[in-house]
Amino acid sequence: MNEKKVLLIGDGARENALAEALSNNKVFAISSFINPGIKNVVERTGGKYFVGNINSKDFVKEIIKQVNPDFGVIGPEDPLFHGVSNAFYEEGIPVVGPIDKDAMIEKSKVWMRQLMWKYKIPGRLRFKSFSNLAEAAKFIIDYGGSVAIKPSEQVGGKGVKVVADIQAYLSNEKRQALSKSVDEIGKYVADDEVKVIIEERVDGPEYTLHVLTDGSSYLSLPLAQDYKHAYQDGIGPETGGMGSISGPKNLLPFINEEEYERSFNIVKMTAEAIEKETGEKYKGFLSGQMMLTDLWGPTIIEYYSRLGDPEASAIIPRIKNFGEILELMAEGKLSKAKIDLVEEPSVVRAIAPYGYPLNKSLAKGQKFHIDLQKIKEKGCILYFGSIALEGNELIAQGSRALELVAFGDFDEASKKLDECMAYISSDRKIIYRSDIGRTINEMVEKAEIVRYAYKNREKHGILGVSADWSPNGGLW
């Protein structure tokens, strides 16, 4: 393909990976701070770097008029919620990223659940939503069953989830404690909005399927798994993701080809339902954050209206022609796209400053020191995330600062990451998980148990049926 001008929106590791994938073009970028990795690509390709409010439709529109790009790529979710994708279309420029009406699939968990029930999409969970926090807390106490509690709207990609334990019915003390967590979740959404969504609890190995669509054709990407919890062995608060794995080939070791196809059909059906609901074709990434459960098999936990992060760092470098695929999508020619895939797996390790995720003001301002050449020599890739180039120094912005990527079988890749960590340091402690990619056997065993259970349900015609939840999505 001929060199095009592309305008990239965003400033994290996902956008650094996107910039590298698009580097056969002239890359222009808008970020809220100077990301060193994105800056390198912009300068290398002869583009221009703009710093400003990536959520401002008016600001982005000004830059679009100045650059006159051939197409745009939007990385994070917040610009999508604020209609930045709409700004491209209003200027006659194609863009990878849905308009704000379609991005509701991520922004509102209630809207998403209602859509799935309305259009009878498999993998849907039963739920109740509340605008009154006292009523939500009372429901938990009265119901007593095992549930997941979440803020009703997206909160910076992190979310808050409080899940009951594996007992079918909780003790009164546990129910009382769980009900108190509702007040914490209520802080994350506006007073006049639905505050809390309570869902039936499911369990199983999680994975993400990203599907790219131009509104007519659909292209499913290799699976990835995100490691949400902050600390080793999956404990601690949830984060935007402390690491990810992808592969081998288009699968994960614990998800088979049939489950991959079922997952793809769920996401495709959802994109079609969004078009019916909004009257607008869905264009961009629609990503299913999924779980293999005994209730449904492939089950939707939530949707992204963009590439996940750090999943993007696991997937993008495995697809040799990713930039070309994005260009075809923007031009409405996705049917011509074929993935040129690196078949071996990848492992991503996120690195954050001390204080993350509970005290981001403490984490902000921490200096990092990196020997990028040594990291390359060891066979790793480094993407810059929430870290700014200030003068000649790398200063943490309070969130995940770096994402380190290695290829090979999971053990081999993990060892490469261990070696590369020697070339990353800070003036304070750094936070990371060394167990990413090292729990594969546990996931395989868990998946086998779940698979036996959902296949047995399917054989008896009770897939998706729960005894105490009504078929219209709520309680009897």
TrEMBL record:
Residues 113-330 form the ATP-grasp domain. It is an enzyme of class 6 (ligase). The keyword Ribonucleoprotein does not apply. One of its GO terms (biological process) is 'de novo' IMP biosynthetic process. Its EC number is 6.3.4.13. InterPro entries: ATP-grasp, ATP_grasp_subdomain_1, PreATP-grasp_dom_sf, PRibGlycinamid_synth_ATP-grasp, PRibGlycinamide_synth, PRibGlycinamide_synth_C-dom, PRibGlycinamide_synth_C_sf, PRibGlycinamide_synth_N. Keywords: ATP-binding, Ligase, Nucleotide-binding, Purine biosynthesis. It holds the Pfam family GARS_A. SUPFAM superfamilies: Glutathione synthetase ATP-binding domain-like (SSF56059), PreATP-grasp domain (SSF52440), Rudiment single hybrid motif (SSF51246). One of its GO terms (molecular function) is ATP binding. Pathway: Purine metabolism; IMP biosynthesis via de novo pathway; N(1)-(5-phospho-D-ribosyl)glycinamide from 5-phospho-alpha-D-ribose 1-diphosphate: step 2/2. Belongs to the GARS family. PANTHER family: PHOSPHORIBOSYLAMINE--GLYCINE LIGASE, PHOSPHORIBOSYLAMINE--GLYCINE LIGASE, CHLOROPLASTIC. This is phosphoribosylamine--glycine ligase. It comes from Acidianus hospitalis (strain W1). The lineage of its organism: Archaea, Thermoproteota, Thermoprotei, Sulfolobales, Sulfolobaceae.
